[in-house]
């Protein structure tokens, strides 16, 4: 049973066919399935899909409904209490999306300005912890990324703080993508991994080996290119998101830690 | 099940200032009560007026009452809140709209929309109960009232309403608990009430089952208190010999 997301673009999402996820993380998930078929010598191993959301994904993996979830799940300490993570396959940093002419270059420029972020995210948590020392005027928590971006576009906030890849996604959807720019040095880095149940070392080995195989063969580069630097379905948007140095490091030295 | 339990989750620090998750839950509870109280006040006031209108001799009054109930009772609550939050502000006159969108915080505008939306929705349901309460009275009482020379207003004030409100107290308690539970929908327009706090805490700590259980218990406790209060009210207002008055 594979877990997938419906709108984690470009990791795991529904493009044109209902119940058929596509995406970078989903391609890796299929690699794992291939490896399992060989390992178990069951060429017609059936796979079934189960849609998960950011709220239910961890309970569903920990209670065994879903065997493997590859989407956009950050590997962190709290989650490691409940589930196991594969080696990381993506690294994000929280940065700022702002208008090109706003004069904001980094987090230090937020003094006295209004900042929007999405409620319930690690970015929100970080920025609220550091609100005082950065001297931010006001922090607005919007309920989803689209609403956060709307706050930015309508001028109710000067900058939008979020994971850089999600900012690139919002930016590419805008009517005038060139007006917006992603700036700042990420104060927090997070690694995405596939989730599987705890205490199944054998299964984890298969998952890790399958993902590492794409790293050592260099196949990962084509997969990355396909989803991050080419037009992707359903709207043929190109995210134009270059592979970060951190991700290059991760691919060179794969690990399943949270940092 | 491979789950590590942590029932002490509420007393963990959130990492922001020196607050714990308990503070968040209490803040959420506070907003829940604000929405519930405002919405219930709107619902009782408007619902009673509309319920009376539906029983008046005037055809216009009855049509208005019926139309209101038809619209507000048949559209899902979530859609109503979305309409109040996203659609209606766009049709406000320009100066009010700019004040609403820019000067009022996003949270305050969501809070107002949610309270009004829930109030108007619940009003339709209260209206129906008030109407049934009035219609449950024997027709003879109304005729007798008119025969004694009461005007319609006097008839309602002195004969009908004192009895019908007593009759409908039990269904009104259910409606009150519904109103409290329905506040959870406000989290979807961005009010930081208890459900949205619950989701955030669950996201931060991953102790999903614990935090959902705690919030469930909070809802049960609030509603039990409300029902006890309403039962007490029923006892206090009981008129021996009447419909809701038997010993």
Architecture overview:
- The complex is a heterodimer of chains A (259) and B (247).
- Chain A is of the alpha/beta class and 259 residues long.
- Chain A folds into two domains: 2-91 and 189-252, Periplasmic binding protein-like II (D-Maltodextrin-Binding Protein, domain 2, 3-Layer(aba) Sandwich); 93-183, D-Maltodextrin-Binding Protein, domain 2, CATH 3.40.190.10.
- Helix content of chain A is 36%, strand content 24%.
- Chain A is built from ten helices and 14 strands.
- Chain A has helices spanning 24-40, 57-62, 77-80, 122-129, 131-134, 145-153, 164-173, 201-217, 219-228, 245-252, and strands spanning 2-4, 7-8, 12-14, 21-22, 49-51, 68-69, 84-99, 114-118, 138-142, 159-163, 180-183, 189-196, 231-232, 237-238.
- In chain A, the strands form three sheets. In chain A, strands 1, 5, 6, 7, 8, 9, 10, 11 and 12 form a nine-stranded mixed β-sheet that branches. In chain A, strands 2-3-4 form a three-stranded antiparallel β-sheet.
- In chain A, helix 1 (24-40) crosses helix 8 (201-217).
- The longest helix of chain A has 17 residues, at 24-40.
- Chain A is globular.
- The two termini of chain A are 28 Å apart.
- The model of chain A has no long low-confidence stretch (mean pLDDT 90).
- Chain B has 247 residues and is an all-alpha fold.
- Chain B has one domain (18-242): MetI-like (MetI-like fold, Orthogonal Bundle), CATH 1.10.3720.
- Chain B is 73% helix and 0% strand.
- In chain B, helix 5 crosses helix 7 (152-167), helix 6 packs antiparallel against helix 7 and helix 9 (194-205) packs antiparallel against helix 10.
- The radius of gyration of chain B is 22 Å and the shape is globular.
- The N and C termini of chain B lie far apart (51 Å).
- The mean pLDDT of chain B is 90.
- The chains are: A alpha/beta (259), B mainly alpha (247).
- At the A-B interface, helix 2, helix 4 and strand 9 of A face helix 9 of B.
């Amino acid at each position: 049973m594979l877990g997938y997301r419906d709108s984690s673009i470009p990791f795991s999402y529904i493009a044109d066919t209902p119940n058929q996820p596509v995406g970078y993380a989903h391609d890796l998930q299929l690699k794992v399935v291939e490896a399992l078929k060989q390992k178990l010598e069951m060429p017609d191993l059936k796979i079934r899909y189960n849609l998960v959301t950011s709220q239910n994904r961890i309970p569903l993996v920990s209670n065994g409904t879903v065997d493997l979830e590859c989407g956009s799940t950050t590997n962190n300490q709290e989650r490691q209490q409940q589930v196991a993570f594969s080696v990381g396959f993506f690294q994000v940093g929280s940065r700022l999306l702002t208008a090109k002419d706003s004069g904001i270059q980094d987090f230090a420029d937020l003094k006295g300005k209004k900042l929007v972020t999405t409620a319930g995210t690690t970015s929100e948590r970080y920025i609220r912890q550091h609100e005082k020392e950065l001297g931010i005027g006001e922090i607005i928590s919007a309920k989803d990324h689209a609403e956060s971006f709307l706050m930015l576009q309508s001028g109710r906030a000067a900058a939008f703080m979020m994971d850089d890849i999600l900012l690139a996604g919002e930016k590419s959807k805008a009517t005038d993508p060139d007006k917006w720019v992603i700036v700042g040095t990420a104060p927090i880095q997070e690694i995405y991994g596939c989730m599987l149940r705890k205490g199944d070392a054998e299964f984890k080995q298969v998952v890790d080996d399958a993902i590492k195989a794409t790293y050592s063969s260099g196949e990962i580069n084509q997969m990355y290119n396909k989803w991050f630097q080419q037009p992707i379905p359903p709207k043929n948007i190109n995210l134009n998101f270059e592979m970060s140095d951190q991700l290059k490091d991760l691919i060179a030295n794969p690990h399943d830690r949270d940092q | 099940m491979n789950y590590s339990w942590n029932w002490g989750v509420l007393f963990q620090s959130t990492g922001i200032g020196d607050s714990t998750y308990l503070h968040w839950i209490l803040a959420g509870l506070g907003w829940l009560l604000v929405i519930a109280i405002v919405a219930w006040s709107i619902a009782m006031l408007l619902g009673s007026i509309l319920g009376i209108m539906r029983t008046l001799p005037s055809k216009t009054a009855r049509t208005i009452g019926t139309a209101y109930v038809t619209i507000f009772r048949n559209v899902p609550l979530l859609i109503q809140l979305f309409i109040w939050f996203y659609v209606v502000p766009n049709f406000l006159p320009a100066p009010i709209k700019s004040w609403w969108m820019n000067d009022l915080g996003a949270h305050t505008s969501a809070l107002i929309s949610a309270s009004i939306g829930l109030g108007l929705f619940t009003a339709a349901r209260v209206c129906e109960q008030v109407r049934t309460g009035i219609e449950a009275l024997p027709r003879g009482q109304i005729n007798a009232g008119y025969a004694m020379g009461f005007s319609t207003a006097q008839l309602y004030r002195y004969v009908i309403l004192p009895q019908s409100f007593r009759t409908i107290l039990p269904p009104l308690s259910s409606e009150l608990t519904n109103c409290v539970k329905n506040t959870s929908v406000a989290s979807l327009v961005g009010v930081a009430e208890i459900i949205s706090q619950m989701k955030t805490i669950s996201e931060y700590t991953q102790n999903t089952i614990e935090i959902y259980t705690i919030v469930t218990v909070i809802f049960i406790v609030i509603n039990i208190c409300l029902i006890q209060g309403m039962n007490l009210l029923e006892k206090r207002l009981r008129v021996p010999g009447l419909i809701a008055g038997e010993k």
